[in-house]
Amino acid sequence: MDYLQLANVYNRLESKASKLEKTDIVAQFLEDVDKDELEAVVLLLSGRVYPGWQSQELGLSSSLMIKGIAKAYGIDASKIEDKWRELGDLGLVAEKYSSQKKQSRLFSKSLTVMHVFDSLRRIAEIEGMKSQDKKIDLVCELLGSVSDPVEARYLTRTIIGDLRVGVAEGLLRDSIAYAFFTNVYWKETLLQKVDGGTRLSLVCESVKGRKILVDTELDAFLLKKYDKEYSVLKSENDLIVRDIDGDVEVSKSLCDYVLFYDSVLGKEVKSKIVSAVEHAFSMINDFAAVAMAAREGGLLGLSKLGLTASHPIKVMLYQKAPTIEDAFKIVGKPAAVEYKYDGFRLQVHKIDGDVKLFTRRLEDVTLQFPDVRYSVNKSVKAESFILDCEVIGVDKETGKWLPFQKISRRIKRKHKIEEIIKEIPVIVNFFDVMMVAGKNLIDAPFEERRKMIESIVSESEMVKVAKHIVTSDVRAVDKFYKESLSKGNEGIMMKSLSAPYKPGNRVGYGIKIKPTMDNLDLVVVGADYGEGKRVGWFSSFHLACYDSDSGKFLTIGKMGTGIKEKTEEGMSFEALTDMLKPHIVKEKGKSVVLKPTLLVEVAFEEIQKSSKYSSGFALRFPRLVRLREDRMAEDASTVDEISMLYTGQRGRDT
Ligand code: AMP
User: Fold this and answer.
1) CB of 494 closer than 8 Å to CB of 513
2) Ligand 1 centre and the CA of 340: distance in Å?
3) What is the pTM of this model?
């Protein structure tokens, strides 16, 4: 497939705002993609070249990309930068210069999706001596091979990791469900569409020559009302008319459409398909593999996708509640109550005798923690497993547990590891398990998973099972909460005994309660350059929360306090600027737009309603508490949570 075809799809997606329209575009496109190209296309559609479980990313910095564009078009880098400031989008800059070069490429061969995909992977993988020059050469080669300037736009954006066509996880999931499974309609939707004027004819047009499974009652209904269209279909012998139940086979090889009389059944079947795609994705964290399984094996194919030890999965996330009573209302009684350790989350995998460690961002940190590997190997008695835990640091003088900031150094440290192991020893606290000896435990109730942890972990100085009680009594929880805080923990977790493990979802199966309840985790999505003594540094940081429905980051305010003037005093303007600069995607005057990569914990005085920011809220006096580099942008507080906090405030006011 030519890359131009994909670029045209990106272009159409960019021009549509509605999620439904975008889903239709992606679904129709996927339907026709060849098997050999499906992986590349699915990944590229979401702006990636590696599946989610691999921590490797493309994300070339904008400054390197500018060099690539400059070299490709033989233009001075400073000119490219000026144009970037003017247009605010490096993709558009590349497109513009590409269109000026068009003449000389009239006879060149077209760029294929597979060639782009392979080259992008090579760009991501090049390391060592002269790696930057080699990356620039590859960028140059790609930009020089486009047959249409629009390809340059999307190549550039993909390379800097800022595709901006709005294909978030939910949209890709729905598109896969629509592309590889039968389309499901029901009477009401058909009627609505007919009244709207266009859709039924569209359904009828596109069903010509296709097989349709029709609920018998609907068949009568159609026959009565749409005699003409029906006779067309009937004569082509495409209708399979029968009473359909919820277990209808939805594979496209059997029929292309299912028409239900009953909307409840129709919706059930539709959501069954979407859930199957979502469940499969939560197991393997790779939409390309999910698309392939759906296409080749339908629902059965999806159900065969299981957890793979050594492929990290997304971790389950938890909601907040203000009080113990509120938490009980969500998780039910009795509930498990555990210490909420203030460390970092680690996913521990063992396969074929080999232990691998992944952070919450799914980065492989096996090399950083040989001490953890060794102890886990000794203490966990199972051949293969996937366990979830919180690792905390210990003060080697006092034996007390250290707060997160102190051990974050251990995650980053890649050399002289033996030294830092002695300086900051750690304790591993297992609190969940997803797989043991090949048995997938994701859908098992928490109570059972906890028993499994207790049965395979024999505790040692370094390896523990999370401190845990089961109770229905608010006073007992309160006592446990105080005990937990006195040990230096962040608070407590309250968990439903019957709940499954839901990868990647912020579900109410576990609730966190902590004293600093109102702090928010926000993403830095932009910044303003400072003046005077802060010239050259960012001095104000644009913050955003996450909207999990749309996959978008919505702004909520700007922060300039809590940050130090000098690096010796703590997190400084200079250090933050250095960290964020490689992630600039757009510059306009004194402001920059940043790729959402850095999560920060922010304290504030109050949440206010505001039309100035896209979340609809603004923070009064936001202040930096700490960086959360161990977390992903998508872990940010959600707009729903903020709305709840806002309502809570109001409740207190009145
Ligand atoms: P938060 O990061 O505030 O959303 O709180 C959830 C985090 O608390 C998890 O991602 C873990 O890293 C951490 N945590 C500490 N102790 C526990 C525990 N017993 N159960 C689950 N998560 C825990």
Assistant:
1) yes
2) 6
3) 0.83
